[in-house]
Amino acid sequence: MLTIFRKELNSFLNSLVAYIVIGVFLVLAGLFTWVFEGNVLDYGYADLNIFFQLAPYIFIFLIPSITMRLFSEEFKSGTIELLFTKPLSDWQIITGKFLAAFVLIMVAILPTFVYYYSVIELGNPKGNVDTSAIIGSYVGLFFLGGVFASIGLWASSLTDNQVVAFIIGAVSCFILYDGLHQLALLFNGPTQFLIDYIGLSYHYESIGRGLIDSRTIVYFLSVIILMLYLTKIRVSLKKN
After folding, report:
1. Could you give the number of structural domains in the chain?
2. Which of 146, 172, 144, 145 is nearest to 158 (CA)?
């Protein structure tokens, strides 16, 4: 697993893809948080709600662009056959690729911690910030990034075309994050709650309130494991 992890991470870092993705994320997040209309300075409160509301939608497009090549490129070039001959299990291959993508996502998020320091300084009085909510939102963002990475990895295992893998990954992330939430609004009562509860946004917003519930953590981990398992099924079929 560590061999695959190092190989994929080095592949990311030796190409422009990683730097473009990180750069685009930071530029877009920074512009919407601090510059464009409705930014933190105009809002008048020392919090990062704008950033945490926007980040998932940026991730919907950027994370599939990271993961689209992980299996698609292997299938297209034929190197997957060579990979299958190595003393590695399917799970080691999948986990190594997933962790490499997840680490890159964490690297993209880490510079935004500067935003937290900034709102502390902007608070009136200084430090008047809901730290628990911000910490919870960051935890939720890390988990959401992991879920999107697992979805993107699954999408990449479906085809040898990277563009198709990107589209499948982005659409799937959107449906699970916002699509189910919008669908839930068409219903009332328990049905609305059930559909909304299945979606990612409900749990992301829940953990963003600063209450890190074990049920929310289990939900995110369950979705990640499910998507990795679906990837395992696809890779096993390709192997046979």
Report:
1. 1
2. 172
The pTM assigned to this predicted structure is 0.93
Q: How far is CA 21 from the centre of its chain?
A: 12
The span from the CA of 32 to the CA of 28, in Å, is 6
Q: What is the largest CA-CA distance in the chain?
A: 64
- Give the span between the Cα atoms of 127 and 46, in whole angstroms: 9
Question: Where in the sequence is the domain holding 20, given as residue range(s)?
Answer: 2-239
pLDDT, one tens digit per residue, over 125-175 is 776 777 888 888 999 999 999 999 999 999 999 999 999 999 999 999 999
Nearest to 53 by CA among 150, 181, 166, 152: 181
The string of pLDDT tens digits covering residues 43-67 is 666 678 888 999 999 999 999 999 9
Query: Which residue shows structure tokens 């699970």?
Result: 176
Q: Is residue 173 within 8 Å of 59, Cβ to Cβ?
A: yes
